Amino acid sequence: MSKVLLDVRDMAVQFGGVRAVDGLTFRVHEGEVLSVIGPNGAGKTSAFNCITGFYKPSAGSVTFGGVRVTGRRPAVIAASGIARTFQNLRLFGDLTVLDNVRAGMHVRIRQNFLDAMLHTPRYWRGEDAATAEAHRWLDFVGMEHDRTAPIRNLPYGEQRRVEIARALAREPRMLLLDEPAAGLNHGEKARLLDLMRRIAGLGIAVVLIEHDMGLVMEVSERIVVLSHGKEIAEGTPAAVRSDPAVIEAYLGAEDEEAHVEAERIAAETGPGGTTEVQR
Ligand SMILES: Nc1ncnc2c1ncn2[C@@H]1O[C@H](COP(=O)(O)OP(=O)(O)OP(=O)(O)O)[C@@H](O)[C@H]1O
């Protein structure tokens, strides 16, 4: 197995009385595709937010590339080589496709303040290089639409692709994708699968939160399963799929949802209501 890139140990996140993440320990190796799955509210996004510095863990440590980054600011963690996408797109709607990708790169373009103020030759060389590189990443993700149009005019699936291009333009060593297949159609999911494999092929580790189990089972080398903030299983897709603890966690969550739904309907219809609850 290749080198450990991310090492998360005993990480916990607390929101008032809720332990969103409760003693999570896992590792990601260079260039591997690892998925983090679990029922709604299991703590997956909270774990991502801790790793990327958006939340401060209440306990535990996060080490990336051998350097402890626990509790550092998001910008510092991003600069150390971790890029991410979000469950809800965070693009600049009025900016063009190209400018959205270039915006992701400004952390690493070497220009000083005066270059930018005075638009020196070095400034223009930097801008040209940035534009060429943005095109390269847009080619890589397969973005075929007009790149000079405002991004808000693009179909949703294409916007998702641009968000990945922007994250890649930071030249990360690890890319965290939070539900990248949400809202995509069948063909778009197939292209996403291929894209994730090509990203890993570049040696970039891909860590995926995803509810589409078909996609997860096909693309992942390993899977970490969370339930109520705790890791309940870890292993290959085949091992995880047949793990009784995993099956039970998902069935339990379904039961919980069905129960909540039944209570909601009962409250709406009141005693003697006529709505039947489907089980
Ligand atoms: N900012 C917050 N403040 C308070 N509670 C939060 C916050 N973020 C998450 N939680 C709670 O922490 C728990 C874990 O939520 P989280 O969003 O991490 O789960 P998830 O596994 O990503 O869920 P989903 O699959 O629905 O996105 C939930 O009980 C949630 O309500």
UniProtKB/TrEMBL annotation:
Residue intervals of the ABC transporter domain: 6-253
Q: Does the keyword Thylakoid apply?
A: no
Transmembrane regions: none
Keywords assigned by UniProt, alphabetized: ATP-binding, Nucleotide-binding, Transport
Q: What GO terms fall under cellular component here? A: plasma membrane
Stored Gene3D superfamilies: P-loop containing nucleotide triphosphate hydrolases (3.40.50.300)
Provide the GO MF annotations for this entry: ATP binding; ATP hydrolysis activity
Q: Which Pfam families match?
A: ABC_tran (PF00005), BCA_ABC_TP_C (PF12399)
Supply the name of the protein. ABC transporter ATP-binding protein
Q: Species name for this entry?
A: Streptomyces naganishii JCM 4654
